[in-house]
UniProtKB/TrEMBL annotation, chains A, B:
Gene3D superfamilies: Chorismate lyase-like, Winged helix-like DNA-binding domain superfamily/Winged helix DNA-binding domain. It comes from Actinophytocola gossypii. The keyword Membrane does not apply. Signal peptide: none annotated. This is GntR family transcriptional regulator. PROSITE patterns: HTH_GNTR. Keywords: DNA-binding, Transcription, Transcription regulation. The lineage of its organism: Bacteria, Bacillati, Actinomycetota, Actinomycetes, Pseudonocardiales. It comes from the Bacteria. Residues 6-74 form the HTH gntR-type domain. InterPro entries: Bact_HTH_transcr_reg (IPR050679), Chorismate_lyase_/UTRA_dom_sf (IPR028978), Tscrpt_reg_HTH_GntR (IPR000524), UTRA (IPR011663), WH-like_DNA-bd_sf (IPR036388), WH_DNA-bd_sf (IPR036390). Coiled coil: none annotated.
Length: 255, 255
DNA sequence: GCACTGTAGTCCTCATGAGGACTTGACGTC
DNA sequence: GACGTCAAGTCCTCATGAGGACTACAGTGC
């Protein structure tokens, strides 16, 4: 894999990566100290650090100052791309059901540019509920989210508290607004984590995240809810299953 | 944004990033030489290089040895997540239609582990058509793809040539197999680009890519086609629109 | 028992210095 | 005019050296 003429730091990175892939050190465990690696590979400290930097940006390892460098556990969480509305399926592959929901805040906020651009003019006063999901197995945050709800329906209701809602959020909105969720648009993007996301998701800076923006509309096209979800990009898999009859409009060979 | 006690390389990176965001230098243009930056910021060369390294892993800039460091054009290409089967919509936001199609190869290959795991036993002999999409405006590759087709249907047919197919690929397979595409599973992942992808997509090493694995099945559940598509993660947006009536199975409030 | 302190081990920052590899373009030769 | 050569400018690699910041833990004093 590595050519003989590759730079030292690259060869060291390759060596360590393949060792990790073979289980030494195993996920979660500590790597040898930088000074040990200097001795082992017979190179200088900056070279070792450059090699570790490669693995760090790849998400293979993670360093904590004063403690050590650790092998990251990169098992991926499985998400269903349209599972927001709880279609009844008991798919054991979906790990997200076990996640603990935690409401960070629930208060009126000025919507950011990208969100307010999607809103109808009269609904620009909004309530924002921010949530975080913790994986109870690893005790690590796996998802960050925000729901932007039209103020006219939700101001002064129980949604303005940080309590966990009694039933699915969209059902609450339907009750409060008297309208039905009938259409949705999803937008998926990969981008660098913001400082806030780095903190809340406990990620190394510069990590990529998957960002989903979900817009739900009523029959009259007004926006009932906009929600955002953010996951660490290297810890998530998005699954989608569908019938093609709906997708294939006409087969030319039949015309 | 940057605290006063942030390390030098971080402050330099922040300064350059915000300048770039404000248009200097503009996308595609050259950055000042590293030695110029050394003088401007009054730091050493490794520090400047570390700052540029941050921007490089963020995808903001790109360096070419012997030539210079350039601001990357990070406009994103829009993709529809289920548009593979050409549902007739004339959405001007979709830029992909303008892409130039290029068949790299079309020959029998040993399927990789992840693919053959999805295949039925008798169809493990497959034809692989590899394609690349070029954006004629920028003349840059935007997408890399591979279609894994069951050998029993396609060996010896025109699909074994690198010619562009006369009609949509799935229609060809339907004709040749006598079966219909009725169901599909999509799997989306973000991962580091392989060496091959770095070459073919002309990316800096270590870049993240979005990887879609699409499995299409017939009514009897046999696999008709597996296709993979790979895009640079920071140059793509995935869009999806759908009716919620299909998704929301039952509203408890009505029970 | 508790709180504080010091120390060792760890990763992080940054300077200096040197050589190499790659690209471009000017120049000279044929 | 075509081709090869050379030099300048660029980014890339790597060593050495030093200091700092952070964490965990053992020991001390109360």
């Amino acid at each position: 894999m590595t050519s003989a003429r590759a730079p030292k730091y690259q060869r060291i990175a390759d060596a360590l990566r393949s060792e990790i892939r073979n289980g030494t050190p195993p996920a979660g465990e500590r790597m040898p100290a930088e000074t040990d690696l200097v001795e082992r590979f017979g190179v200088s400290l900056p070279t070792v650090r450059q090699a570790l930097g490669v693995l760090r940006t790849e998400g293979v390892i993670e360093s904590r100052q004063g403690i050590g460098t650790f092998v990251r556990d990169n098992r991926r969480l499985q998400r269903r791309s349209r599972n927001r509305y709880g279609r009844a399926r008991d798919d054991k592959k979906l790990l997200t059901a076990h996640l603990r929901h935690e409401i960070i805040s629930a208060q009126p906020e000025e919507p950011p540019q990208e969100i307010s651009a999607l809103l109808d003019e009269p609904t620009k006063r909004i309530l924002v509920r921010r949530r975080r999901l913790i994986n109870p197995d690893t005790n690590r945050p796996e998802e960050l989210g925000a729901s932007y709800l039209p103020g006219e329906y939700v101001f002064g209701t129980f949604l303005e508290t940080t309590d966990v809602v009694p039933k699915a959020l969209f059902l609450c909105i339907e009750d409060l607004s008297g309208k039905r969720y009938v259409r949705a648009e999803d937008k998926w993007q990969v981008r660098i984590a913001s400082d806030d996301e780095v903190d809340r998701l406990e990620l190394p800076t510069g990590t990529n995240v998957v960002h989903l923006t979900h817009v739900a509309r009523a029959a009259d096209d007004t926006v009932l809810e906009i929600s955002e979800s953010v996951w660490p990009a290297d810890r998530v898999v998005i699954l989608d299953e569908y019938d093609l009859n709906d997708e294939i409009s006409a087969r030319p060979s039949e015309v």
